Fold this sequence. Notes:
The protein is mainly alpha-helical. The chain has helices at residues 3-9, 12-30, 62-78, 82-105, 119-148, and strands at residues 37-38, 53-54, 58-59. The two termini are 27 Å apart.
Amino acid sequence: MTTHARSAARTSIQQAAMVVGAVFLIIGILGFIPGITTNYSAMEFASHESEAMLLGIFQTSVLHNLVHLAFGIAGLLMARTAPGAYTYLLGGGAIYLVLWIYGLVVGHGTEANFVPFNAADNWLHLVLGLGMIGLALLLGRRRTLRSRL
C-alpha cells in the first residue's frame, strides 16, 4: 500500500487527531527554543517559579514542554485507528477541561501549581478541551452515521 493510499484511507477523525497531535508536538519542541520561549534561562523543571514564557504569553517549564511532547506523540499514535483517534480527542479534551478547572482553583503562586500555569494557559486549556471534545463528537458522530448507511 502506498503512502497516498494510506492517507486517503484515513477518516476525518483520524486526520483531526493527527493534526492536534502534530500541533502539540510542535508546541513541545518550540518550548525548548530560546527566543520563541522568552526568559528561557529562567525555565525551571517543574515549578510555579518558572519565568519562561512560550511565545511571551504562556508560562512554561521543562515538565510542561515534556507533557506537550508526550501528548503530541500519543495523538499521532492513537490517530492510526478511528477508535483511537476518537478516544484521543474525547479523552484529551476531558483532560484539558480538568486542567482548566485545576488552573482556576489552584493559586498561580502556590506549590500546587507545579506544571506551571498562568491565566493565559487556563483559558487556552478551556478552548483546547472544548475544541477536542467538539471534534470527537462531531467527527465521531459522522463516522457512526456513515457506518449505519
